[in-house]
Task: inverse folding
């Protein structure tokens, strides 16, 4: 019963509609009425700019980390690593489900990538750092948040299965499922990327202006 209550709490944490709150409070708009219509960090970057996109992404990552850390309320999991990891995955997935289907925003949320990485930060920080490094590198090179998210998610099973060779079957299956889920939820973005019409986030413009001046 206590585990169930914590999973429900994790879902509620994930359901906090960060992008919607910020768009309404600072701009008096519903972020879902603009851009891709998605309530996540990518669309926030696109519609509201890098400052608010960064805030939304940071809070959404924090949601996943806090949710996964809820196991601390049950002392049993503190001393049982295998059960703790499994429970943290369950708590984190509940938060991701809350982000995608938020009870506080008519069940119309984001794609859950930032919240997903937050839970990985809580479960295994080193692997999370590797995935975040992939995300930031791709973002720096391309300014596509969607492509950065896809490649960072693909890096997760690579790290879990081959680089660190984790032996927990549930964790391995989870890593593969995460990559598959992110790819599936980004099908429209993949289509736009292939057509060359995906929007770039408004960051590193100084770099682009410098390159333009060099070409001139």
Result:
């Amino acid at each position: 019963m206590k585990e169930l209550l914590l999973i429900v709490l994790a879902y509620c944490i994930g359901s906090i509609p960060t992008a919607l709150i910020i768009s309404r409070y600072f701009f008096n708009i519903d972020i879902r009425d603009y851009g891709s219509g998605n309530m996540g960090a990518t669309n926030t970057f696109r519609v509201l700019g890098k400052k608010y996109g960064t805030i939304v992404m940071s809070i959404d990552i924090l949601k996943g980390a806090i949710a996964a850390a809820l196991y601390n309320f049950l002392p049993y999991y503190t001393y049982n690593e295998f059960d703790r990891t499994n429970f943290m995955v369950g708590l984190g997935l509940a938060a991701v489900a809350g982000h995608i289907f938020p009870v506080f925003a008519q069940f119309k949320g984001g794609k859950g990538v930032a919240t997903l990485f937050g839970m990985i930060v809580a479960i295994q920080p080193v692997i999370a750092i590797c995935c975040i490094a992939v995300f930031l590198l791709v973002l720096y090179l391309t300014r596509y948040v969607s492509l950065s998210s896809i490649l960072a998610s693909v890096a997760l099973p690579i790290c879990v299965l081959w680089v660190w060779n984790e032996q927990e079957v549930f964790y391995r299956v989870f890593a593969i499922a995460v990559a598959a889920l992110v790819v599936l939820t980004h099908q429209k973005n993949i289509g736009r990327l292939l057509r060359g019409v995906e929007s770039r986030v408004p960051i590193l413009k100084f770099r682009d202006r410098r390159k333009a001046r060099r070409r001139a």
In short: The mean pLDDT is 85.
